[in-house]
Amino acid sequence: MNKFLRIGWQSALALLISINMGVVYAQGEEQVNTNETIVREFIAAWSNLDVEELIGYFAKDGTYHNMPMAPVTGQDNLHGFIKAFLASWEKTDWEITNLLVNGDLVMVERVDRTSVGGRYVELPCLGVFEMENGKIKVWRDYFDMATFTNAMATAEGE
Length: 158
Description:
The protein is built from 4 helices and 6 strands; from the N terminus they run ααββαββββα. By secondary structure, it is of the alpha+beta class.
């Protein structure tokens, strides 16, 4: 009988732990879905070419690090940096090819297709987003600068 109670107690503890972990997993799953949704919306928002809308996705002290360049931190600085990009853009559409989420980390492989000063650029990128309270705390974008400059040079030569 004592052996039966011990097994019963262990089974009860295992059940309690699994129920508790399920609650934690469900809460984590909700955060993952929220972060994924926010990043997907942010990427789609680039098509609107609206600086104010894009800045709204960042934390007040958020950082954008376009890896070939120096990082830019703070919404005021980000506003100027992004506005400079968009000044020559006529149209852009970013296609997500892969997206991975682990809590507050969202990684997005994508192809950015942009019309810049009458030229078309197709740029494969990898964006790494660190999220905090529903905002982008840090965004690092990795791409080959030569792909961009070659596309611009080829378009100029046509």
